[in-house]
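Please predict the structure of the following assembly.
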Amino acid sequence: MSDETTEDRGPVTTLATPIRLDFDFTPGIAQSKFLRGLERGKFMGQRCPTCGKVYVPSRGSCPTDGVPTTEDVELANVGTVTTYCVVNVPFAGQSIEIPYICAQVLLDGANLSFMGLIQEIPTDQIRMGMRVEAVWVEPDELTPSLASVRYFRPNGEPDADYETYKEYL
Amino acid sequence: MSAADATGRTPRPVSIASFAQSQNVRRDDEHNEVEMLMPVIAEVFGNIGITKDDVDFICSGSSDYLIGGPFSFVMALDAVGVWPPRSESHVEMDGAWALYEAWVLLQEGEIDAALVYSFGRSSLGDLNEILTLQLDPYYVAPLWPDTVSLAALQARALIDSGKATEADFAAIAARSRKDALANPKAQVANDLPVERLLEDDYVVSPLRRHALPPITDGAAAIVLAAGDKARQWADKPVWITGFDHRMETHSLGARDLTSSPSTKKAADVAGLADGPIDVAEIHAPYAHQEIIIKAALGLDDKVAINPSGGPLAANPIMSAGLIRIGEAAARISSGQAKRAVAHATSGPCLQQNLVCVLEGE
C-alpha cells in the first residue's frame, strides 16, 4: 500500500457504466412479406396505389403519399447498379475480404434501390449502370433475412442507359 | 377568453381541431411503427375532412430507446408522406411536448395548422430497464433503479407525510378502471371494489399491482388549427387558452417527492385558476401520483378526474400525455365540459410537467 491519496491521482476522467438492453423486433405486415419472400428466394415489394411506385422492401406505406401500400409485387432477380463504392479499409467485425464492392442495386420493376455486395468481378471494373443478378444461398439455407442473398454478380447484359436510373442516385 | 401570460401578452387562439388514438394494447406484434401510425393519421385528418397538404408543420414525440432502433422517428414520417418537403420537428418527449412546440410555432402567426403525433411501443424491450436510462448517467443510472421502485419511493414518502394511504391509491385505481369501461380504446377496464384491490400482492411496497399502469403499445395524433382554419374545421372550436411546462432538478434526493412545484408553476402560468374546471385529464401513471398532481393543480372534489380512465387504463409511453389533451378536448366537444385541464408528465417521479388549459365557446 503506497502513501498515495486519492487526491494525488487527480480528477477522474473515465467512468465505465456498462449498459445492455435486449429488444424484440416487429417487422410488421409489409416487411414480413419481404422477409418471407427472401425465405423463398424471391424479392417481394409493394406498389403505391396513388403514385404507382414499387418499394422493396416496403414498410407498409408510400413515403411520398402517406397511403398504405397494399398491392404485393414480385420483383425480378436482376437489376442495375445505380452507384457503388469500393471498400479498402479494414474494420472490426468485417466478414468479407477487402477490397470489395458495395453497391446500390435497383431491381427491375422497383422504384427503390437497396444495398448489395457485388462479387465475381475485379473491383476496378465496377461501374454505374452495370446489370447484375442475385446469387442466393442453397435452398436449404434460405432464411427470412437478407443473408439469403449471397451477393450480386454481373449478368452479362449491356449496361443500362443512364436515363433509366438517374432518378435513383 | 384567453389569459394574458406573464409578459402581459394574450396567446393567439389555437384549437384542438381533431384527435385520434389507436387501440391501446399490451403488445402489438403484428404492425411496425408506420403501420401502427397510418390508421391514426388517416383518422385524425378524416375526422375533419382534410389531408396532409392542409397542415403547415408536423411535430412528433417518441423515443428510439423504446424499440431499440435508431431514427425510428424519421422512418415514422413515412406514415404521413412528406412530399413535397415539409417543415417537420421531433421531440424525444411525450407527444404533449410536441404539441407544445407546434403551439409555440402557431403563436408566431406564420402558419395556421399543424399535425402532432406520437407513438410508443413499450412491449419490445424491458420497459423498467429502458426508463432507467433517463436517469443521471453517473451517480444514479449505474445502480439500475427501475422505474417502479422509484415510483414506490415516492409513494412511500407520500404515505409517511400523512398525505395519503394505500386505500387512497386503491380508490384511484378502482375509479379509473371503472370509468375505463366506457372507453373503447382502453386496455384495462374493470369494476372491482377497493377491498378486493387491497388484497393484491405488492409489486414494490407500498405499490400493489393495481397502483401500477399497464404496459401499453399505442399511438395518438392531434391537429392544431388557428385563424380561419380553426373555424372551418369545427363549428365550436375547443381552444387552448393556457399552456406551459416546467421541470424540476435531475437529483431525486433534492426534491420533495410528495409535491409538484413544477406542475403548480405551469398551472399558474397557464392561468388555470382564472375560471372553474369541469374535467381534468391527469397523466399520473401511478395511482399515488394523481394525488400529488391534483393538489398541485388546486383541483377540488367537484372536478371529474380522468373520465377516460387515464393512464391506469392505458399508458402508451410517449403518447399517454398527448392522449390526455385529446381526451380533455373531447369532453368539451361533446358538451360534457366547458373548461378542462390536461396534464402530461415525463421523467422519473413526475420530474417534468406540462399543463394545458382548454375552453369551449
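The longest strand of chain A covers residues 78-87. Chain A touches chain B at residues 15, 17, 19, 21-31, 59-68 (CB under 8 Å).
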